[in-house]
Amino acid sequence: VDWKDRRLWVTVLPIMAITFPAAVQAVLWWRYRIAFGATLCVMGLLFGEWVNRYFNFWGWTYFPINFVFPSRLIPGAIVLDVILMMSGSMQLTAVLGGLAFGCCSTQVTGLLLLHYINQLNTTVW
């Protein structure tokens, strides 16, 4: 993995991983009172990743699969949906659910940063 990746997946993934499920969850909750929007969004992303790998599309193939595979996001999406279902409050879900989603899903970002710091320390300039 090159730390100079132009796609900026290290910074973009955590931001996009919470905004899309939160947006789908907000729409499904406000219009239909359905509390599984985040899980539905992540499952759609999982299907898109499968289609990408199966049909050899080039769009996501340069991302390291063990870091960005959408199955890492499913536990966080379930926790986000459960907090909305139990509380019924979008504000409480935004605060507690966002924190829980981050802890469950995107803990890999910290590991990536540690890996890159270690890689930079061992690089001969």
UniProtKB/TrEMBL annotation:
Cross-referenced Pfam families: AMO
GO molecular function: monooxygenase activity
Leader peptide range in chain numbering: none
InterPro entries referenced in this protein's UniProt entry, alphabetically: NH3/CH4_mOase_suA_sf, NH3_CH4_mOase_A
Transmembrane segments: 6-27, 34-51, 57-80, 92-117
Keywords carried by this UniProt record: Membrane, Monooxygenase, Oxidoreductase, Transmembrane, Transmembrane helix
Record's keyword annotation contains Transmembrane: yes
This protein's name: Particulate methane monooxygenase
Originating gene: pmoA
